[in-house]
Amino acid sequence: MVDARTRVFAVIGSPVEHSLSPQMHNASFAELGLNCIYVAHRVEAGELKDAVAGFKALKYGGVNVTLPHKQAVLSYVSELSDEARAIGAVNTLEFRKSRVVGHNTDGVGALNALREAGVEVDKKRVLIIGAGGAARAIAITLAMRCDVAGITLLGRRKEKLIALARDVERAGAGVTTALLGDDLRSVVEESDIVIHATPVGMHPRTDETLLRAEHLASKPVVMDIVYTPRETLLLREAKRAGCKTIDGVGMLVHQGAEAERIWLGVEPGVEAMRRAVLEALEDG
Fold first, then answer.
1. For 36-67, what is each residue's pLDDT tens digit?
2. Quick one: which of 144, 146, 148 has its CA closest to 167?
3. Residue 201 maps to which CATH number?
4. DSSP codes joined into one string, 221-246
5. Taking phi first (over 0 means left), then psi (-120 to 50 degrees means alpha), and beta for anything else, what does residue 150 get?
6. For the chain, how are helix, strand and coil distributed in percent, rounded to 5?
7. DSSP character at residue 180
8. Same-domain pairing of 233 and 208
9. Same domain, 45 and 135
10. The CATH number of the domain where 266 resides is what?
11. Do both 205 and 231 map to the same domain?
């Protein structure tokens, strides 16, 4: 029952009505027997400063930040975690007395999803498709937290890839870049793990993929961060090629779990979170 001692957590964004975070975190809180509740607030760009100040004044337990505020919220935090600073974006706010600390758990979510699937990243060559916010978070986190053999960034825009490559190198990994017009089979053959981090294949573009089975003949591990649909065309093609596949639900769950570790210092109810997400996706 919600009472005066209930700790409140939230996700903010615009739009935010589609977010599965309330189902996911409330399931974890219930599993752990915590007197906490998680809600969603639609916050427009001009309201962001006041929203953050309001959450702090109302003593919210913590807040997740989604599009379009992950970069704009940098102006309203007191300090940043090392990863959030390197990534240049925040998806989790932690309130420590008078301070607002910004974190980014997206990359950790991807890393823990790989590890949960039994995939070790150290000494492996990783191909990341995309150069947007998710690709950036994953690449920089892998560079900072793992001893990768190297990271290849694959995308459409050379300038954007080169800029991201410089930041990933500063984070600690060797980097190469490739363009989608290149020989994709050769690019994939040089990789042990492929992480797709673009919206291609996401609903309603479910009949699209950047890689086909013939590109994946070397049988790398293939992870797609898209989770609607859960099995994208890319993952179907990867299975046809005989690859081990990992869908986007794992990253979603584990980035949320990492936020709970930051806020509460507890081990989250990861399986309860996963069940809640899968039920919500099935309900459509």
1. 999 999 999 999 999 999 999 999 999 999 99
2. 144
3. 3.40.50.720
4. EEEE---SSSS-HHHHHHHHTT--EE
5. left
6. 45, 20, 35
7. T
8. yes
9. no
10. 3.40.50.10860
11. yes
In this structure, what DSSP letter does residue 67 have?
A: T
Instruction: Please give the Cα distance from 271 to 122 (Å, whole number).
Output: 26
Residue 134 neighbours by CB under 8 Å, 6+ apart: 106, 197, 225
Do 18 and 80 lie in one domain? The reply is yes
Residues whose CB falls within 8 Å of the CB of residue 271, separated by 6 or more in sequence, listed in order: 31
Tokens of 98: 């008078």
Cα gap 212→225, rounded to integer Å: 17
Q: CA-CA distance, 145 to 129, in Å (whole number)?
A: 19
Q: How many CB atoms lie within 10 A of CB 149?
A: 15
Distance from the Cα of residue 200 to its chain's centroid: 16
The total number of structural domains that make up the chain? 2
Segment 109-148, tens digit of pLDDT = 999 999 999 999 999 999 999 999 999 999 999 999 999 9
| Catalytic residue list | 70
Provide the residue range defining the domain that includes 71. 7-105+250-283
